[in-house]
Design goal:
Strand order of the largest sheet: 1-2
Number of strands: 2
Distance between the termini: 63 Å
CATH topology of the largest domain: Multidrug-efflux Transporter Regulator, Chain: A, Domain 2
Number of helices: 6
Shape: elongated
CATH class of the largest domain: Mainly Alpha
Order of helices and strands: HHEEHHHH
Structural class: mainly alpha
Length: about 140
């Protein structure tokens, strides 16, 4: 199938195809006699998998690792697959959620305390915002 057909079938634009080729996410296709890119039907599945992984929060570098893990390496062994990468991504997401919960609590306390002026609030002993003294780190 040609670039436009593949892009339409996968819900991406044709420039995305070329970008994914440069990044190694999509194999460089064969060319027609007229120089048009000709993609195999399984390229639609690859593109949909890339987009699904991105929606799950994986970067394109991580997506490349996931795709490579599905291909056998030397000795017919496969790389670390989706389960391991998903576990790692889940740990990252949980850490971000914890950080966001901490921020939510601090902001809620600031709203409840009526903090309207950042500088004035910072000098008040009842200020709930996480002001801290800045210290320089020194090498031992």
């Amino acid at each position: 199938m040609r670039s436009g057909q593949l892009a339409e079938a996968a819900g991406v634009n044709p420039q995305t195809l070329r970008y994914y080729e440069r990044r190694g996410l999509l194999a460089e296709p064969e060319r027609s006699l007229g120089g048009h890119r000709l993609y195999p039907p399984q390229a639609v599945t690859t593109l949909r998998a890339i987009k699904a992984a991105q929606r799950l929060g994986f970067s394109l570098t991580e997506v490349a690792e996931l795709l490579a893990a599905g291909r056998p390496h030397r000795g017919g062994r496969f790389g670390v697959g989706l389960r391991r990468h998903a576990q790692d991504k889940l740990a990252e997401v949980e850490a971000r959620i914890a950080d966001l919960n901490t921020l939510r609590c601090a902001l809620s306390e600031a709203v409840e305390a009526g903090c309207d002026d950042l500088l004035a609030c910072g000098t008040s002993p009842s200020c709930p915002l996480p002001f801290a003294e800045v210290t320089e780190e020194r090498d031992p």
